[in-house]
């Protein structure tokens, strides 16, 4: 036979376990686990404006607008080809420097993913190409990407001169969590 103290301890334990279950099941907002994503972005600079800073030779700041496609090889959109558009700001000396920008991807169901990115660039192949390294962050979206979050990296290069449009590609990888 259990004593009154033992019954109180058991009741208290049952109450604690029940409360924890309730909090876990009903009060913690539901989120999906992060999906690994990967693929290749390709693009073409539609417009580029550069202004010479004038403090040292070859120092330019500017802005680019671009359009392109994302070819997803991993994640919930694997196999899809997704239109993308964006704007970036750069600050370079003789082609070496930094950039930051924003991009919108529009998926076949009409959902959009909004990204912010930043990175570095440097000329390669005697200045015929430019190598890029960057990080990206999902800042939101619409449809199934509403409230999405994520981060990752991207590396690639521009082939050709910005004055003639400059085609580029970035191989990306990271994670995206959707609500």
Written account of the structure:
By secondary structure, the protein is mainly β. It folds into 2 domains: 1-29; 35-177, Beta Barrel (Porin). It is 13% helix and 60% strand. It has an 8-stranded antiparallel β-barrel with strand order 1-2-3-4-5-6-7-8.
Keywords for this structure?
179 residues, mainly beta, Porin, 2 domains, eight-stranded antiparallel barrel, 8 strands, 13% helix, 60% strand, elongated
Provide a short characterization of the protein structure:
This protein is mainly beta. The protein contains one helix and eight strands. About 7% of the residues have low confidence.
Into which percent range does the helicity of residues fall? 10-25%
CATH topology of the largest domain: Porin
* Cα end-to-end separation: 50 Å
Name the average pLDDT.
87
Cα-atom radius of gyration: 24 Å
| Biggest β-sheet strands, sense, barrel | 8 strands, antiparallel, barrel
Secondary structure: elements and pairs:
Layout: H1 4-27, E1 35-52, E2 59-74, E3 81-93, E4 96-106, E5 112-124, E6 129-142, E7 149-159, E8 167-177
Antiparallel strand pairs: 1-2, 1-8, 2-3, 3-4, 4-5, 5-6, 6-7, 7-8
